[in-house]
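User: Show me a protein chain along with its predicted structure.
Assistant: Here is one chain, sequence first, then structure tokens.
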Amino acid sequence: MTVKPPSAPAFVLVRPQMGENIGAAARAMLNFGLDHMRIVAPRDGWPNPAAVAMASGAGRVLDAALLSPDLPDALADCSFVFATTARERDMTKPVYTPEAAMQLASEKIAAGERVAVLFGPERAGLENDDISRANAIISVPVNPDFASLNLAQCVLLVGYEWMRLQSKQAPVVHAMPGTDWADHSEIEHLAKHYEERMEEAGFFYPEHKAASMKTNLRNMWSRLPLTRADVQILHGTLRQMVRWKERG
């Protein structure tokens, strides 16, 4: 078969039973930047209108899907194959989490290899004969009392790990529309403003505890992740409270 140079793993659906699940798998793949699907002996034939309807905008994944009569044909050009399964198998193979598997896949693809991931039929998953053709197993950590995953769910989980590794997105991103973090001088000015007003209000009492109370207060300000907008609001709040007290 003629295929484009590898830039991502091929997701191989082995003997899928329902067109809706094929379409849902295509949608999950495209969500995470994967568009190379291979379909092995689909039960209801191919193309399948139900798959197109369920793909919901991911039809191009289905249009480019490669159809194979059997698994050896689908894997003919692959140098490394993962098989997804939730059941223990009596086979000596390395077992990877989805994250570790996609890390290895990324490394192999970067080296010019073609990598495939096998997903089994909805009813019972991959057969031992299918798994025997794989180099390694992907096992998703799930509830052992209910380990069955829908085909599209499994595709989505593996696809997510692929996308996460490729995007290198930071685990936490602070959205700061229209402001920046307050710098030290701004926090210092805020602390001084509150200290002065609280001094006038007689807050620092008794006198022998005043120094430690002021230290604790400044320590509190330094711990707070304040933006410049936060600092302005706190200044304004204090000014308004003082004005209200003076009017009273």
